[in-house]
Design a protein that fits this description.
single chain; mainly alpha; two-stranded antiparallel sheet; 17 helices; 2 strands; about 70% helix; globular
Length: about 400
Amino acid sequence: MNRDFYGFYTWVFVTLALPYVPVVLPFFPSRFAGFNLTGWAWITMFMVCIYYFFKKPNSEFPVKYWIPWVIYLFVYLLFEMSFFGAQVSLQYVLPVFVGIVASGFRYGKEEFHWLFKRLMIFGFLMFLMFMLDFFIESFHTIHWATSSIFITIPAAVLVGLYFMTKKIKFLLFYGALFLVPFLNVTRMALLVFVVIFIAHFANYRILSKATYSVLGILMLLAVFYSREFQEKTFYEGEGALTDLSINYYEDSNGVNTSGRRGFYRHFEKGLRQSPVWGNGPRADYYVMRSFTGLNDAHNDYLSVRYNYGYVGLALLLYAFGGSFLSVYRRYRYYKREKEAYGFLIASTTLVLFFAFMMFMYTDNILKYTIFFPNIFFAMIGMVFAKPKEAS
């Protein structure tokens, strides 16, 4: 039995579950010793990574793309040390650490089935919690935005399984998970769900891709013109596609950006004064706290650019781009060799790169370590890990 594998991934799922404990046990404290449960979850996972890194130092992760970003974070921290700066630096590094450890394990049919089963269980539990909250007035849950982000991972796996097997049950489960961002009107998550359906790399035949693209666009239009989406997106309760803009910071025709449009003007001065190197780790926190009770700008591109400048943003995008191309090369290998599990993980990971970059535009997903990045980077690690038979 691969005890280290099961031990490590058990902690991945335990830390994912920890913030939801008060939903099941209302008497359980939501924070203690200065940290909420989400904080304790990522701190715990960081310690777990340290333990398994030294226990199993072998790694196949494409870390060379991430070294410049990580070095930049900690060198900057040496010159601009602060508690919040150190905290966010560790949060940014944790998923990479998870990927490094995950790539050192050996994966076979047993391991993949174990992971898929637990991923689907968590997806179902979040679907169930949402439905209970939505239809039962006395039931209340938490972390809706991050839950909608997390379920895009099992959704992407399900779409990959559907394209590989054509079994309708996988598509039906995907549709059930789609109800969570749809009923909660989590707009970027809705768009990500559609992009996953259209762009999944498991569907590589041109005619099939074109057919499902049309279905995906029709699904997107149905969502856009739904009453719930219209009422949340437009102050007047209705609008057209032409009213939307890719740059949601510019003035547009009554589009509700949940306050994001007003954030940017508070960052403009700092962006002008220090465009290359930025204003220091977590400088965005102090800007946000100066005019609102929120801690984050809900745009990782803006936060990274403000804190670390164009240099930091370029290093981060270089890391993502290099990793994407590396995963794509492995995807082509698995496709050529007809290795089903490797192909599923690689094709799903590729489309989740799109999801990650999209969520960065409207959220602070880089800090949502336990809800998305940890599992995503673990999947990158799986793509490069040696198969169990080769150990």
